[in-house]
């Protein structure tokens, strides 16, 4: 006998109660659904009294706030499925997607008449303490945060391995145990056909830890990749000589692997609706901490920072937030040298980067390019690097096949830099933030 599916129905008072209850019975019979509750979203046009919806013998839940109370109700009733029987004007697209995000975070499928959202698959393959670093978009700083977390774990006596999922990753999971990542090594990797500026190379270069590269194609609204070899990479990482695993996401896609905790990285420069709206809230609901990057002008005004923090807290009131800014840390000395800077940072960051490098690193900036992810524009920009001794670049995009090759052909040195996340102003401490997250990791991994 096929077991029935425990279902929570979202209903409103804009539908006649007889219509709602008859629909409930039809779906129960036709699709094998077992109602565990009716969740009333509001509306009174066709509903004289709430008791009209109680006649079916199924619990009627009337929340104080339909969105804020939803996760609590899901936790109590534990439905496997949420069926949306509501509609405009009570339930518009924005609220519908926010409710869907909450349902997914609770592990329930959210289904309407012509759509269905399923909780992204996160397979339990890791046996070692683990943390995911995910984001709400591309270029928000996930790799910088992953590398910084790996450095923190190494400083505290642990031996982490980083699994980095990327759009340019290898066709088979690729273990990188090369402790010294040189430009010769990266060029040789590029000649083999690898994207030698993939995130796992950057993690290995910056943190000096073992990394595993993997790839993905496509990404769902809640972050599930369409095709990926990430699960195989995680299995491989779990068998390596390490005692902690960091799973690094790609863009807004989430590694399809269960971890003990998660950090969500959000760029303050990102559109608020894109970061927090739609199913973006799902990423915050499954995370224990948020690192906001680029938390300074010209990327975000104090007003936008306040809006962003308040929006995050409305979605997940228990989450820990740390505001950070990025500052370039050359991995080799550049003091007193003539430098041409190459970066994926937006043009608006140029003056900040120049001032920092002059004041803190003591180098002479002859020029800069922000076209590291645009090969044609980058090749044009590099014409201005003729008088430079050093090309200072991130290990991203065209850093190897264009910048490093250009330097090699023109007798210049390449120095890679780490985008170091630094707490904004006087607020917060990155080590303390990681310590709090890792305490949760160890607590959960021991259960």
Q: What is this structure, in a nutshell?
A:
By secondary structure, the protein is an alpha/beta fold. The chain has 14 helices and 19 strands.
Produce the secondary structure layout.
Elements (H helix, E strand, L loop, with lengths): L4 E7 L5 H15 L1 E8 L19 E2 L8 H8 L3 E4 L8 H13 L3 E3 L4 E2 L12 E6 L6 H14 L4 E7 L7 E3 L6 H9 L7 H9 L2 E10 L5 E4 L1 H9 L5 E5 L12 E7 L4 H5 L3 H6 L3 E5 L8 H14 L4 E11 L7 E5 L7 H12 L2 E6 L5 H7 L8 E4 L5 H11 L3 E11 L6 H16 L2
Parallel strand pairs: 1-2, 1-4, 2-3, 4-5, 7-12, 7-13, 8-10, 8-12, 13-14, 14-15, 16-17, 16-18, 18-19
Antiparallel strand pairs: 5-6, 9-10, 10-11, 15-19
The CATH C-level class name of the largest domain? Alpha Beta
Arithmetic mean pLDDT = 93
Helix content: 25-40%
Main sheet summary: 13 strands, mixed
- The number of distinct helices, counting runs of at least 4 residues, comes to 14
Strand content: 15-25%
Category from helices, strands and their pairing: alpha/beta
- Name given to the CATH homologous superfamily of the largest domain: P-loop containing nucleotide triphosphate hydrolases
Please give the number of β-strands: 19
Note the overall shape.
elongated
CATH topology of the largest domain: Rossmann fold
**CA-CA gap between termini:** 34 Å
Regions with little confidence, pLDDT below 50 for 5+ residues: none
- CATH-level-2 architecture of the largest domain: 3-Layer(aba) Sandwich
| Radius of gyration, CA atoms, in whole angstroms | 25 Å
**Total discrete domains:** 3
């Amino acid at each position: 006998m096929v077991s029935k599916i425990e279902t929570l129905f979202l209903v409103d008072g804009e539908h006649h109660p007889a219509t709602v209850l008859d629909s409930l019975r039809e779906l129960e019979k036709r699709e094998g659904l077992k109602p565990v509750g009716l969740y009333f979203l509001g509306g009174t046009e066709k509903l004289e009294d709430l008791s009209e919806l109680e006649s079916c013998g199924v619990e009627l839940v009337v929340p104080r706030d339909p969105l804020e109370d939803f996760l609590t109700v899901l936790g109590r009733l534990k439905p496997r499925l949420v069926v949306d029987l509501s509609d405009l004007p009570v339930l518009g697209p924005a609220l519908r997607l926010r409710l869907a995000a909450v349902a997914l975070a609770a592990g329930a499928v959210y289904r309407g008449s012509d759509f269905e959202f399923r909780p992204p698959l996160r397979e339990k393959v890791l046996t070692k303490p683990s943390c995911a670093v995910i984001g709400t978009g591309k270029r928000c700083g996930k790799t910088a945060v992953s590398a910084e977390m790996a450095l923190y774990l190494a400083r505290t006596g642990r031996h982490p391995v980083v699994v980095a999922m990327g759009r340019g990753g290898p066709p088979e999971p690729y273990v990188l145990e090369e402790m010294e990542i040189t430009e010769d090594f990266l060029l040789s990797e590029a000649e083999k056909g690898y994207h030698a500026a993939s995130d796992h190379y950057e993690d290995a270069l910056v943190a000096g830890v073992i990394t595993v590269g993997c790839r993905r194609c496509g990404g769902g609204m809640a972050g599930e990749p369409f095709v990926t070899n990430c699960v195989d990479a995680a299995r491989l990482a779990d068998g390596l000589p390490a005692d902690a695993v960091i799973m690094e996401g790609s863009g807004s896609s989430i590694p399809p692997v269960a971890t003990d905790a998660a950090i969500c990285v959000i760029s303050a420069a990102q559109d608020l609706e894109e970061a927090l709206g739609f199913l973006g809230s799902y990423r915050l609901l499954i995370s224990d901490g948020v690192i906001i990057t680029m938390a300074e002008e010209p990327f975000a005004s104090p007003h936008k920072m306040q809006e962003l923090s308040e929006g995050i807290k409305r979605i997940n009131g228990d989450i820990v937030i740390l505001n950070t800014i990025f500052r370039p840390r050359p991995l080799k000395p550049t003091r007193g040298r003539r430098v041409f800077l190459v970066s994926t940072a937006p043009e608006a960051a140029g003056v900040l980067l120049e001032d920092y490098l002059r004041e803190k690193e003591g180098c002479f900036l002859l020029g800069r390019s922000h076209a590291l992810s645009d090969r044609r524009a980058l090749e044009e920009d590099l014409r201005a690097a003729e008088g430079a001794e050093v090309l200072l670049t991130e290990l991203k995009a065209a850093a190897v096949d264009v910048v490093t090759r250009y330097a090699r052909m023109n007798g210049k040195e390449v120095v890679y830099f780490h985008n170091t996340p630094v707490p904004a102003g006087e607020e917060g401490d990155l080590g303390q933030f990681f310590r709090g997250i890792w305490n949760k990791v160890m607590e959960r991994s021991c259960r």
